[in-house]
Write the C-alpha cells for this entry.
Amino acid sequence: MCNRAVKDALDVLRGSWKLPILVSLTHSKKRFKEIAKDVNGISDKMLSKELKDLEMNHLVKRTVYDTFPPTVEYSITEHTATLNNVMDALSEWGTVHRIKIIGK
C-alpha cells in the first residue's frame, strides 16, 4: 500500500461531511437546501465549502439554470463512480465496527 496514495485520497475525502454529501447525491441531483436537509447537522457555510471542494476535485458538478431567481443543482460526476467500492467497503466496515464497539 502506498502511503502517498492513501494521503491523497484522505486529503480529498477528509472531514465529517464529504462522504455524507456524496451519499445524498448518489441517486439524484439536488438543490442546496435538499442536500442540507439530507446531511443532518451541517451548517450552510460548511456545506458551501464542502461542495466547492468536491467540485474542485471533480466529484460534484454544479449546474446553474438561467431562471429568476437562478436555480442551482448539484450532482455527482462519472469520476465519483470510482469511489463506489470505497464507500461500500467503508459502509460494511462501519457496520461491523459499530456492532463491535456499541453492540448495535
User: Anything to note?
Assistant: The helical segments are 3-13, 18-24, 32-38, 44-56, 84-102. The longest strand covers residues 60-65.
